[in-house]
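Student: Hello, beginner here. Can you help me understand the protein record under this note? Any guidance would be welcome.
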Amino acid sequence: MRGVQGYTGNYKGKRVSVMASGMGMPSMGIYSYELFNFFGVENIIRIGSAGAINENIHIRDIVMGMGACTNSGFAAQYRLPGTFAPTCSYKLLKECTGQADKMGVNYHVGNLLSSDTFYNDESDLAPIEKSAYLWGKMGVMAIEMEAAALYMNAARCGKNALAICTISDHIITGEATTAEERQNSFTQMMELALETAKAI
């Protein structure tokens, strides 16, 4: 499908497909729409990294996006007479938190920010004026780039979606993991997603 890598196999007797989604909401929007509408997929669990913007969240913590704020115009296509609040599937979230408790995972549940920009033009702003600080003061846990589009597509298609992210860096404190650490040590998030998929 559009040259992206995808694999289907069995995890503890449950048939599961794993594939890349690209980066950003346009890419996630394409793949999730096609999976939901053309391939009969009912549940999509996104896993990936995120940057913390909350002082109570730390490197390698896992965050589950109950909601996904965004600075994107993705929702404009729906021509709604107001602001849509993208949320995950409670069914998936409930199962995921239950699995996390069984596994002893250190996790947080709340709002993510799905940003349209990875690099932005805020270098000349004081920390208190930066968008990360402004979102963080509203209780948003972390920044990533895909959950809002996934949640909106799931809502429109009547399907289920959840984003689970591992904190790779802290936007406020500057603490960060290396590329090698992200590649080799974020396996707990993967196991959590697979256990959730197996149970639903």
Summary: The longest helix spans residues 25-38.
